[in-house]
């Protein structure tokens, strides 16, 4: 069995605050936070509240299909973020993990042609990620059990 790291809800609370503090300590304030659905939505919301940045957007990217199972390349699902909203903005792209880094690279590169500046933040970054994020809470080479995806889906009792 693959060795795993478990993020609890309490750890997640600490991670969101710590990432926000690192961004604030850097003297940078994003104009727009772009959360990568689905896992990045939790972190993006947490950072958004901590930094008091209400301009929060979502991009949906499909890549992982199971534990260590993924598509050949990540795919941005519609609707795509509005490039008009990005024009000249400082954008913080937030995801739960930069594993291969392919997802965050896809979103960062999509924003880069329209924004004044794009930075990235993740709860976890893996050593083999092709993207080194500006803001990282923890680095690991383990598979991560996130509190929002550790339990099986809820189904009807009928």
Automatic annotation (TrEMBL):
Database matches in SUPFAM superfamilies: PRTase-like
Phosphoribosyltransferase domain segment(s): 12-149
Keyword Phosphoprotein: no
MF terms in GO: glycosyltransferase activity
Ranges that cross the membrane: none
Annotated keywords: Glycosyltransferase, Transferase
Protein name stated in the entry: Phosphoribosyltransferase
Species of origin: Paractinoplanes deccanensis
């Amino acid at each position: 069995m693959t060795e795993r790291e478990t993020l609890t809800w309490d750890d997640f609370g600490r991670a969101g605050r710590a990432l926000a503090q690192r961004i604030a300590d850097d003297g940078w304030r994003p104009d727009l936070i772009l959360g990568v659905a689905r896992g990045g939505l939790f972190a993006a919301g947490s950072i958004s509240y901590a930094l008091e940045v209400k301009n929060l957007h979502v991009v949906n990217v499909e890549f992982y299909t199971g534990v260590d199972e993924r598509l050949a390349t990540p795919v941005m699902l519609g609707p795509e973020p509005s490039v008009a909203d990005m024009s000249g903005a400082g954008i913080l792209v937030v995801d739960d993990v930069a594993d291969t880094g392919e997802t965050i690279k896809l979103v960062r590169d999509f924003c880069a042609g329209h924004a004044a500046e794009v930075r990235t933040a993740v709860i976890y970054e893996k050593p083999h990620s092709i993207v080194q994020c500006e803001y990282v809470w923890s680095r690991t080479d383990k598979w991560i059990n996130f509190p929002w995806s550790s339990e099986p889906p809820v189904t009807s009792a009928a």
